[in-house]
Protein backbone atom coordinates (compact mmCIF):
# COMPACT_ATOMS: atom_id res chain seq x y z
CA UNK A 1 0.00 0.00 0.00
CA UNK A 2 1.43 3.36 -1.04
CA UNK A 3 -0.53 5.51 1.40
CA UNK A 4 0.61 4.34 4.79
CA UNK A 5 -0.66 5.27 8.20
CA UNK A 6 1.32 8.02 9.91
CA UNK A 7 2.05 9.00 13.49
CA UNK A 8 2.84 12.31 15.22
CA UNK A 9 3.49 13.14 18.86
CA UNK A 10 -0.21 13.22 19.78
CA UNK A 11 -1.97 11.65 16.80
CA UNK A 12 -2.35 8.56 14.71
CA UNK A 13 -3.20 9.41 11.11
CA UNK A 14 -5.14 6.36 9.98
CA UNK A 15 -6.24 5.60 6.47
CA UNK A 16 -9.96 6.02 6.01
CA UNK A 17 -11.87 2.72 5.77
CA UNK A 18 -15.47 1.54 5.44
CA UNK A 19 -15.50 1.14 9.25
CA UNK A 20 -15.34 4.95 9.59
CA UNK A 21 -18.79 5.62 8.19
CA UNK A 22 -20.37 6.78 11.49
CA UNK A 23 -17.49 9.18 12.11
CA UNK A 24 -17.61 10.53 8.54
CA UNK A 25 -21.37 11.09 8.88
CA UNK A 26 -20.87 12.92 12.20
CA UNK A 27 -17.97 14.98 10.85
CA UNK A 28 -19.53 16.05 7.57
CA UNK A 29 -23.06 16.59 8.86
CA UNK A 30 -21.79 19.18 11.34
CA UNK A 31 -22.58 22.68 10.06
CA UNK A 32 -19.48 24.20 11.67
CA UNK A 33 -17.18 21.61 10.07
CA UNK A 34 -18.76 22.17 6.64
CA UNK A 35 -19.14 25.94 6.99
CA UNK A 36 -16.40 26.73 4.45
CA UNK A 37 -16.63 23.58 2.35
CA UNK A 38 -18.39 24.66 -0.80
CA UNK A 39 -17.92 21.49 -2.83
CA UNK A 40 -20.59 19.66 -0.89
CA UNK A 41 -23.33 20.42 1.60
CA UNK A 42 -23.61 18.88 5.06
CA UNK A 43 -24.39 15.17 4.93
CA UNK A 44 -27.91 14.16 5.81
CA UNK A 45 -27.60 10.38 5.88
CA UNK A 46 -25.16 7.46 5.95
CA UNK A 47 -25.18 7.07 2.15
CA UNK A 48 -23.35 10.41 1.88
CA UNK A 49 -20.66 9.11 4.24
CA UNK A 50 -20.38 5.95 2.15
CA UNK A 51 -19.83 8.05 -1.00
CA UNK A 52 -17.00 9.99 0.66
CA UNK A 53 -15.37 6.80 1.88
CA UNK A 54 -15.69 5.14 -1.53
CA UNK A 55 -13.77 8.01 -3.11
CA UNK A 56 -10.84 7.50 -0.75
CA UNK A 57 -10.65 3.71 -0.81
CA UNK A 58 -10.49 3.28 -4.57
CA UNK A 59 -7.64 1.03 -5.68
CA UNK A 60 -4.22 2.60 -5.90
CA UNK A 61 -2.85 4.40 -7.75
CA UNK A 62 -5.45 7.09 -7.19
CA UNK A 63 -5.41 10.89 -7.26
CA UNK A 64 -6.73 11.38 -3.70
CA UNK A 65 -6.22 10.10 -0.19
CA UNK A 66 -7.59 10.95 3.26
CA UNK A 67 -6.36 10.22 6.77
CA UNK A 68 -8.45 10.40 9.94
CA UNK A 69 -6.87 12.19 12.90
CA UNK A 70 -7.08 9.94 15.96
CA UNK A 71 -5.94 11.21 19.36
CA UNK A 72 -3.41 8.84 20.93
CA UNK A 73 -4.52 9.52 24.48
CA UNK A 74 -8.14 8.41 24.06
CA UNK A 75 -8.70 7.10 20.52
CA UNK A 76 -11.09 9.93 19.61
CA UNK A 77 -11.47 10.64 15.89
CA UNK A 78 -11.32 14.43 15.56
CA UNK A 79 -10.89 15.33 11.90
CA UNK A 80 -9.52 14.42 8.50
CA UNK A 81 -6.80 15.62 6.17
CA UNK A 82 -5.42 14.54 2.86
CA UNK A 83 -4.77 15.23 -0.78
CA UNK A 84 -6.88 15.70 -3.88
CA UNK A 85 -6.10 16.08 -7.55
CA UNK A 86 -2.65 14.50 -7.34
CA UNK A 87 -1.09 15.17 -10.73
CA UNK A 88 1.90 12.85 -10.80
CA UNK A 89 3.18 14.09 -14.17
CA UNK A 90 3.45 17.69 -12.94
CA UNK A 91 4.25 16.91 -9.29
CA UNK A 92 1.28 18.80 -7.84
CA UNK A 93 -1.60 18.05 -5.51
CA UNK A 94 -4.17 19.88 -3.41
CA UNK A 95 -4.47 19.76 0.36
CA UNK A 96 -7.76 19.42 2.22
CA UNK A 97 -8.49 19.28 5.94
CA UNK A 98 -11.25 19.63 8.53
CA UNK A 99 -11.35 19.47 12.30
CA UNK A 100 -14.25 18.98 14.67
CA UNK A 101 -14.88 22.32 16.49
CA UNK A 102 -14.12 21.01 20.01
CA UNK A 103 -10.52 20.31 18.98
CA UNK A 104 -9.66 23.55 17.21
CA UNK A 105 -6.97 25.90 18.50
CA UNK A 106 -4.92 23.10 20.10
CA UNK A 107 -2.37 22.51 17.32
CA UNK A 108 -3.72 19.14 16.20
CA UNK A 109 -4.20 20.10 12.57
CA UNK A 110 -0.81 21.82 12.36
CA UNK A 111 0.77 18.63 13.68
CA UNK A 112 -1.13 16.44 11.21
CA UNK A 113 -0.47 18.67 8.20
CA UNK A 114 3.26 18.80 8.92
CA UNK A 115 3.27 14.99 8.78
CA UNK A 116 1.31 14.65 5.56
CA UNK A 117 3.22 17.44 3.79
CA UNK A 118 6.46 15.65 4.70
CA UNK A 119 4.90 12.44 3.32
CA UNK A 120 3.97 14.26 0.10
CA UNK A 121 7.52 15.56 -0.29
CA UNK A 122 9.28 12.28 0.35
CA UNK A 123 6.82 9.63 -0.88
CA UNK A 124 4.66 11.37 -3.47
CA UNK A 125 7.60 13.39 -4.83
CA UNK A 126 5.44 16.49 -5.28
CA UNK A 127 7.01 19.79 -6.26
CA UNK A 128 4.14 21.84 -4.85
CA UNK A 129 0.95 21.54 -2.83
CA UNK A 130 -1.98 23.92 -3.26
CA UNK A 131 -4.59 24.79 -0.66
CA UNK A 132 -7.87 26.33 -1.87
CA UNK A 133 -9.31 28.20 1.08
CA UNK A 134 -12.56 30.16 1.19
CA UNK A 135 -11.71 33.86 1.50
CA UNK A 136 -13.48 34.29 4.87
CA UNK A 137 -11.74 31.30 6.49
CA UNK A 138 -8.94 33.34 8.04
CA UNK A 139 -7.89 30.70 10.58
CA UNK A 140 -7.32 28.18 7.81
CA UNK A 141 -5.27 30.71 5.82
CA UNK A 142 -3.11 31.38 8.89
CA UNK A 143 -2.63 27.65 9.44
CA UNK A 144 -1.46 27.19 5.84
CA UNK A 145 0.91 30.14 6.21
CA UNK A 146 2.41 28.60 9.38
CA UNK A 147 3.24 25.56 7.25
CA UNK A 148 5.05 27.73 4.68
CA UNK A 149 2.26 28.12 2.14
CA UNK A 150 2.31 31.47 0.34
CA UNK A 151 -0.49 33.38 -1.36
CA UNK A 152 -0.70 32.54 -5.05
CA UNK A 153 -3.89 34.28 -6.16
CA UNK A 154 -7.67 34.39 -5.91
CA UNK A 155 -10.11 32.20 -7.79
CA UNK A 156 -13.84 32.30 -8.30
CA UNK A 157 -14.19 29.37 -10.62
CA UNK A 158 -16.80 27.28 -8.86
CA UNK A 159 -20.46 27.81 -8.18
CA UNK A 160 -22.14 26.13 -5.23
CA UNK A 161 -25.89 26.40 -4.61
CA UNK A 162 -26.02 29.25 -7.11
CA UNK A 163 -23.35 31.32 -5.37
CA UNK A 164 -19.76 32.02 -6.33
CA UNK A 165 -17.10 30.31 -4.25
CA UNK A 166 -14.25 32.84 -3.97
CA UNK A 167 -11.15 31.27 -2.51
CA UNK A 168 -7.51 32.02 -1.98
CA UNK A 169 -4.93 29.74 -3.52
CA UNK A 170 -1.93 29.19 -1.27
CA UNK A 171 1.00 27.12 -2.46
CA UNK A 172 3.74 25.24 -0.66
CA UNK A 173 6.93 24.92 -2.71
CA UNK A 174 8.20 21.45 -1.87
CA UNK A 175 11.45 21.90 -3.75
CA UNK A 176 12.86 24.10 -0.98
CA UNK A 177 13.58 22.69 2.45
CA UNK A 178 10.95 23.78 4.97
CA UNK A 179 12.07 24.82 8.45
CA UNK A 180 9.49 23.84 11.09
- Percentage of residues assigned to helices: 25-40%
Largest sheet: 8 strands, mixed
- And the CATH topology? Aminopeptidase
Q: Shape from CA axes? A: globular
Global mean pLDDT: 92
- The H-level CATH homologous superfamily, spelled out, is Gcn5-related N-acetyltransferase (GNAT)
**Helix-and-strand structural type:** alpha+beta
Low-confidence stretches: none
The radius of gyration over CA amounts to: 16 Å
CATH level-two architecture: 3-Layer(aba) Sandwich
CATH C-level label = Alpha Beta
Q: What gap, in angstroms, lies between the N and C termini?
A: 28 Å
| Quaternary structure classification | single chain
Beta percentage is 25-35%
* SSE pattern, N- to C-terminal: EEHHEEEHEHEEEE
Q: Order of strands across the biggest sheet?
A: 1-2-3-4-5-6-10-7
Number of E-type strands: 10
Helix count, DSSP H or I runs of 4 or more residues: 4
Number of domains: 1
Topology summary:
Layout: E1 6-7, E2 11-15, H1 21-29, H2 46-56, E3 65-71, E4 77-87, E5 92-99, H3 108-124, E6 128-134, H4 138-146, E7 150-155, E8 159-160, E9 163-164, E10 167-173
Parallel strand pairs: 5-6
Antiparallel strand pairs: 1-2, 2-3, 3-4, 4-5, 6-10, 7-10, 8-9
Helix pairs in contact: 1-2
